Amino acid sequence: MLESIATSAQQYFSVVVSASLKYLILAFLTYYVSVVLYGIRWKLVLRGVGRDAPLHELIKAILASIFMNNVTPMSRSGGELLRMAWVSKRANIPTGVSAVSIVYERILETIPIFALFLVGMMYFSSGEPLPFIILGIAGVILVWIKWDAFVRLSLRLFRTPVTDEEMRKITALRSMHSLNMAAVLLSSTVWLLDVVRLKLIALAFGLNLAWSFIAVISIANLLFGLIAFTPGGVGIIEGGLVGTLTYFGIPMALAVSITLLERFVSYVASSLVGLAVLLTSGGVEIWKALRSQ
To answer: What is the C-alpha to C-alpha distance for residues 238 and 225, in angstroms, rounded to an integer?
Structure first.
């Protein structure tokens, strides 16, 4: 048995070291471009509720929150509490206002996630895109008509409780059409970059997977992250991704290598960068102040 494990480990290691450096660098680039887009989107939403903060402070708060999410067993809650405390300390924005902006960001993410889900469903169809395009347009119209119900559904999906006052502010943001269009466009770009990153990681091992299949993997990655109860989803996300990839016919060695490289970019490296930001930008004091409240 030990010989078998050693053989497998050697096989996995040989696949990992054979990954293309070019695609790995591009995968990192897509990840951190997404972080900048998150910062721009947050800034737009804050302006929508009458507040503003320097973009570099928002980006640092997001990077530090990624580390906090990865090491605390609270899904995204730990990181989002840090984001609220960060802008409260650095931009004098009340935590209630920043909470509304963060919740609204999550709601806006639901639209590109739905689109990604439709793309993923094309993988299981005959390849005819028209029914999914019609379904997507119908979904957008339904969301617009039933906005309040959509907001409540999104909040339940992301397990985000809000007060009545926060709900009133969130629903009021619906009338800001230019803000919503820009924020949805940014959210869609972020999710597109997420798919591109998975594509690049697969290409790093010589696998040119179909975009619709990558969309399925990206949705599965999201679902594993939502149900994970361990810090950063450690163990659950890795096992889920490997299981999904092998279920669809990817050889075990490559499935493990793709998963390890994806988690290296989105978990290991992002945690180290977030920790560095936390330590060098006064984030530790902000976190201590938050915990003392």
So the answer is: 10
Distance in angstroms (rounded) separating the CA atoms of residues 222 and 11: 28
97 vs 15, which has greater pLDDT? 97
Chain centroid, CA 7 distance in Å: 35
Quick one: how many helices (H) and strands (E) in the chain? 14, 0
| Cα gap 118→140, rounded to integer Å | 12
For residues 42 and 37, give the distance between their C-alpha atoms in angstroms, rounded to a whole number.
9
% the chain with pLDDT above 70: 78
Backbone angles phi, psi at 51, to 5 degrees: -130, 165
Q: Please tell me the chain's helix, strand, coil percentages from 3-state DSSP, rounded to the nearest 5.
A: 80, 0, 20
* Residues 205 and 53: beta-carbon distance below 8 Å: no
Residues 70, 232: contact at Cβ < 8 Å? yes
pLDDT digit string, tens, across residues 27-67: 999 999 999 999 999 999 888 878 889 999 999 999 999 99
The backbone torsions φ and ψ at residue 111, rounded to the nearest 5 degrees and listed phi first, read -65, -55
Q: Which tokens hold the place of 167?
A: 């709900």
Contact 186, 45 (CB under 8 A): no
Query: Which tens digit of pLDDT belongs to each residue from 198-250?
Result: 999 999 988 888 888 888 888 888 888 777 777 777 778 888 888 888 888 88
| Sequence-ordered strand ranges (E) for the chain | none
Alpha carbon 197 to its chain centroid, in Å, reads 12
**Is residue 151 within 8 Å of 172, Cβ to Cβ?**
no
pTM of the model: 0.79
Phi, psi angle pair for 176, to nearest 5°? -90, 85
